[in-house]
Batch of 3 targets.
Target 1
Amino acid sequence: MYSFEQLKVFVAVCEYGSFSAAARKLNRAQSGVSQAISNLEIAINQTLFSREKNTPELTESGEALLPIARSILHQQQYFDQKVDSLANDYEHELVIAVDESLVSAALLSILTPLATQYPITNFEIITASTFDVEKLVREEVAQIALYMPMENCVSIWIFLSWGKPVF
């Protein structure tokens, strides 16, 4: 059976172009990187690199398995983040109520990076009228309200669980 560590070494060799460069980046001995790759190849019964030249070249099997290895490592990272989030009781969902007059590509381009920055948090955006946006927050349906109570004045309300505005 292969390990996450072997997959990490495999991806590192591919990204850095050699066993020695991967070893430097992973703070390991070059022999340890070579051994991890050999053990991975034995575990999956596939040759991942052609070793005929000075720099390792991916075999057809290696090329086919590389994107899957990256995906597995990404999922492992996501899993670890979710476990950490649950253990530390972090927020898992954020509902943002947005005044329908404010919905635009510009607003979405501002909010979209949140999903990248906080990949384990589910973001929900609810659009409603100005008065309903405030009501959604007061009723604790949403945690944040973006609305325009006066012309050319955008307000942001962030409520804590007891319903008092933070600002």
Note: The longest helix spans residues 60-87.
Target 2
Amino acid sequence: MKVVNARTGAAFTASCALTPRERDILLAGGVLAHTRRGRA
């Protein structure tokens, strides 16, 4: 994923290795939202 600083225009490439559970938590909007959806 390319990350760009909107103010300076500086850019760099970033990546993040996630487990399937971590990905689900991020997509749900956090641990609390993930738990509320019954996916603990």
Note: The mean pLDDT is 92.
Target 3
Amino acid sequence: MKKQIESTGKSVEEAIRNGLAELMASRDDVEVKVLQVETPRLFGLLGKTQARVRLTCLESDDKATAVRLTREIIGLMGMQAEVSARDENGQILVEIRGGGDLLTGQQGRPLDALQYLVSRVVNTGRKDEEWTRINIDLEGYRDKRTDALEGLARKLARQAVEQGREIITDPMPAHDRRVIHLTLKPEKDVETFSRGQGEMRRVVISPKEKRRDSAPRDNPRRPRRDPRRRRAPR
């Protein structure tokens, strides 16, 4: 199914520019159909109705589109890097080489945002079953990040069991939280769940059996004397 969108503007040319910006495409990548030209209302006294056009993306390879979009976006970010793509397990893996750590800072959130944007544009107008999954990586960052998170998860799980209390991670993006959950899912001694809202969402690692001595103990109190009882005379 070809990707289609409709866009509007004060003129046909402006409507086309708005549509191209939304698709992140060039004029050669689309077929344009004018649905409505701008027309004056009430002899021009009430302004003009907006022009409306339909843009249909020409058939193209999703890999080529993903590579082009990635290059354009990182170019706007001032990055100089090589971009390539390949099919992997029914998905498209876009690999970026070079460009420094601009995309991998903040726990990889800029890289996640880039992947989300490229995926949305490549799959514009498609139904869920037609969706092509796009993964974007920078010099093996995602594998390294996953290995580090798996090690962190096991370390925190040991602490939770040894100390008999919940261990809470720093705020994490959704991908990182998922790695923690999946790593500890087979563990019999701990369970995990997420807590918090938005960017402050964290993973809680909780021991299934908490230490008994971790609970506060009550101070023993002497039993009260019955005031009705009198001491026996010596």
Note: The longest helix spans residues 141-163.
